[in-house]
Each structure stands twice: as structure tokens, then as C-alpha cells.
């Protein structure tokens, strides 16, 4: 068989520099569409059954986040169902790894991919649930639907709201940065549990809140194999102060719907290239930040860490100085505009340092379980029963 390298599929990204010698395959990551961002890769190698090969991504050192390669191992699969990690080395310029090909074709990716077909299946399955209303809020530059799910209480659940309060408005969005595919795995775990009719906490949460979900904010970038931008090269998480139909329809239509519903609490789900932890980035830098809001955020992080040890609150981004928050970013904007408890969840592309699983690293399965655990966190937060 002839050695072949292919990335012409959903979320594919690689350029072949030299692929004649299996012992020294040289590749380059392609930049995002109309943008300088460069980090995500996803490709297949075939024609090497029974042979070993050495793969080198020669422009890893020129990537957007070169420290992301330190301690990083490559997501690998032979059936696109089960993904494991292949140890990799980074010398400051090249990311390299060696594999023995025991199958006709092997796939490699920066993280376990979540395809647009999987996204369509996720939306279709959720839309059949009795508690869910589906709507396309608009379309992207390339004509893809911006899929929105509203999860409401069934009559019996609403009647059992013993807190007898006005319904809260909870927004959960993900994958503003399309290469952060762990975010849509998180969404699958979150929706699986949230819509479980036999889960008492999920029923209680639906009873006290309208839950608004956009599982994939950037379908164009996801299909194109981009790391951070949409088809026009726009970083959606810098568009929340003044989104436009022309540049950022994904944010424009979601922000428009938020204006109609209000936002009491929000979670924007992301991945971080460099840090080997799950953590929340808060909105401490907005002008209206108070000691009470800070205490609530701290309690939420402590609660989530107690419920799921894969989450932690000792490590993360530095706090913004008071009044220095960038209001073009989603969580800062929502906290400022709506007075919401707005948060950004970051998950690693690597393994978690505190709770490592070397064979799989941080994985799709662990992302799903973290998503499922947010049902408990949201319920405790909205009933003011977080750990204090």
C-alpha cells in the first residue's frame, strides 16, 4: 500500500510537507480561516500496516500557544470511536511522535473530535425530549444553523417547585472556539443528565429555571478545522460588546435572544491549551463586582470540586484587576450587562495534573462526566445551597 495522509473531512487540518519516508513524515498545521490562529490538527495516516512511522509537526513552535505542547500527548484512534493518547515530544520547534501501525488507517487529533454529524445527532436527540423546545436562531456566514435548545419544566416539575420563586434564567453555551472539542463532549454529558426523566436533581433544576443551551456556537469553524475563529477569521469570544450579522452572526443572534430572556446565571464552556487543570475563570474585573458576588463564585468553585475531583479551584487564570475586565468577552459582558453569575469553564487539552489518567489523558468521557456534574452545581447555586 502507498503511504497516504488525509485531512479532507469534517474538522480536518494538516498540510503535508514530506511523506515519502515513514521514518520521517513532516507535516504543518494550517492556520485558521482568514486568521493567524494555529494549533488544531486532525488527520489520518494509511498504508503503513505492519510498519512503524515517525510523525513530525514542524511548525508546532510557531503555533498560537506553544506551551500547549509541553506535557502533551496526541489523541489517537483506529476506529474513531475509542481514542487513546500516544506519547509525544516537543523540542521547542517540532511536535513528534512514533507509532507502530497495527491497522490499515490511524487517526490523530489535537483532542477527540466532535463532528458536525455528532452535533446533529445531539440536537436531534435532545429535541425529541418532552421538556425541550428547539429553534434555529439564525445562520452562520456559510449557512449553518445556530442551534438553540430551551429546556423547560414539565407541568409536574413546575408544580413541585417548593421554593415558590420566579423562574431563573440559566444560559449554557459552548465551543465559541471550535478546536476546543472537549466542550461539546461536555455538552453531551450535561444534556444526557439534564434530560434524564429519572434524575431527581435534573427534575428539580428544570422546575426552578428555564435553561437555554447553545451546544456549538461556532459550527463553521468546527467544520473547517479551525482552532479559535469562525469562517471569517473572527474570534467570537471578543465580539460580545458589539456583535454584528456581518462579522459574528453566531454571537449576534444568541446575544439578541439573551436580551429577550434575561440572564441570571451563565456558563461559557472552553478548553485551555496550556494549563493541565479544570477551572473557572470569573468576572472579578467588572466594575460592579462585590464581595457578595465574590463569595458566591468561591462557594460555587468549592462545591464543584467537592462533587467532582476532576475540577479544582487552586489553579487558573489570574484575577482581573477591578474595573479592568474586557467587556468584549462573553462572561464579562453578561456579568456586566445582566448582573449575572457569569463564568467561563476551562478544560485541558492535556491530562489533569491532580487526577491523571495517562492512557487517555483528559478525554471525551471525562468531559461528559464533568458536564453531568454541573446539574448538581447549578441546582445548588440556584437554590442558594452552595458550600459556604
CATH class of the largest domain: Alpha Beta
Determine the mean pLDDT.
96
Calculate the terminal CA-CA distance, rounded to whole Å.
Answer: 63 Å
Q: How many beta-strand elements?
A: 17
What is the CATH H-level superfamily of the largest domain? Zn peptidases
CATH architecture designation of the largest domain: 3-Layer(aba) Sandwich
Overall SS class: alpha+beta
Share of helical residues = 25-40%
Cα shape: globular
Element-by-element helix/strand order: EEEEEEEEEEHEEHEHHEHHEEHHEH
**Strand residues, percent:** 15-25%
Number of helices: 9
- Rg over CA atoms, rounded to whole Å, is 21 Å
Q: Describe the sheet with the most strands.
A: 7 strands, mixed
From the 3D structure, determine the CATH topology of the largest domain. Aminopeptidase
Low-confidence stretches: none
Walk me through the topology.
Elements: E1 4-6, E2 15-18, E3 25-28, E4 42-46, E5 52-57, E6 74-77, E7 84-86, E8 89-90, E9 95-100, E10 105-109, H1 116-127, E11 132-139, E12 145-151, H2 155-159, E13 168-174, H3 182-194, H4 200-208, E14 209-214, H5 219-224, H6 249-261, E15 265-272, E16 279-281, H7 291-307, H8 330-338, E17 341-348, H9 364-382
Parallel strand pairs: 3-5, 13-14, 13-15, 15-17
Antiparallel strand pairs: 1-4, 2-3, 4-10, 5-9, 6-7, 6-10, 8-9, 11-12, 12-14, 16-17
Amino acid at each position: 500500500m502507498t503511504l497516504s495522509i488525509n485531512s479532507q473531512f469534517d474538522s480536518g487540518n494538516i498540510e503535508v510537507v514530506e511523506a515519502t519516508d515513514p521514518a520521517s513524515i513532516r507535516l504543518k498545521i494550517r492556520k485558521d480561516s482568514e486568521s493567524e490562529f494555529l494549533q488544531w490538527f486532525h488527520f489520518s495516516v494509511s498504508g503503513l500496516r505492519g510498519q512503524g512511522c515517525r510523525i513530525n509537526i514542524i511548525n508546532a513552535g510557531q503555533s498560537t500557544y506553544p506551551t500547549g505542547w509541553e506535557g502533551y500527548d496526541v489523541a489517537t484512534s483506529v476506529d474513531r470511536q475509542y481514542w487513546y493518547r500516544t506519547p509525544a515530544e516537543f523540542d521547542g520547534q517540532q511536535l513528534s511522535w512514533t507509532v507502530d501501525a497495527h491497522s490499515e488507517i490511524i487517526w490523530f487529533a489535537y483532542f477527540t473530535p466532535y463532528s458536525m454529524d455528532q452535533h446533529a445527532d445531539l440536537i436531534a436527540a435532545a429535541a425529541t425530549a418532552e421538556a425541550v423546545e428547539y429553534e434555529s436562531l439564525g445562520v452562520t456566514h456559510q449557512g449553518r444553523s445556530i442551534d438553540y435548545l430551551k429546556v423547560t419544566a414539565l407541568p409536574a416539575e413546575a408544580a413541585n417547585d417548593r421554593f415558590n420563586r420566579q423562574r431563573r434564567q440559566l444560559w449554557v453555551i459552548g465551543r465559541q472556539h471550535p478546536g476546543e472539542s472537549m466542550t461539546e463532549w461536555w455538552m453531551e454529558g450535561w444534556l444526557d443528565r439534564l434530560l434524564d426523566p429519572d434524575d431527581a436533581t435534573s427534575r428539580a433544576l428544570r422546575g426552578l429555571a428555564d435553561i437555554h443551551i447553545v451546544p456549538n456556537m461556532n459550527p463553521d469553524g468546527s467544520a473547517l478545522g479551525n482552532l479559535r475563529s469562525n469562517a471569517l477569521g473572527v474570534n467570537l469570544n471578543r465580539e460580545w460588546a458589539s456583535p454584528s450579522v456581518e462579522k459574528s452572526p453566531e454571537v449576534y443572534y444568541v446575544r439578541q435572544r439573551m436580551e429577550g430572556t434575561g440572564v441570571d446565571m451563565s456558563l461559557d464552556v472552553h478548553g485551555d491549551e496550556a494549563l493541565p487543570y479544570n477551572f473557572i475563570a470569573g468576572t472579578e474585573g467588572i466594575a460592579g463586582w462585590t464581595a457578595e458576588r465574590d463569595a458566591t463564585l468561591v462557594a460555587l468553585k468549592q462545591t464543584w470540586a467537592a462533587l467532582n475531583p476532576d475540577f479544582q479551584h487552586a489553579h487558573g487564570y489570574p484575577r482581573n484587576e477591578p474595573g479592568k475586565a474586557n467587556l468584549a468577552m462573553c462572561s464579562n459582558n453578561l456579568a456586566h450587562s445582566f448582573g449575572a453569575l457569569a463564568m467561563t469553564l476551562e478544560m485541558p487539552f492535556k491530562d489533569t495534573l491532580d487526577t491523571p489518567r495517562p492512557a487517555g489523558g483528559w478525554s471525551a468521557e471525562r468531559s461528559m462526566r464533568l458536564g453531568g456534574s454541573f446539574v448538581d452545581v447549578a441546582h445548588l447555586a440556584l437554590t442558594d445551597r452552595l458550600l459556604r
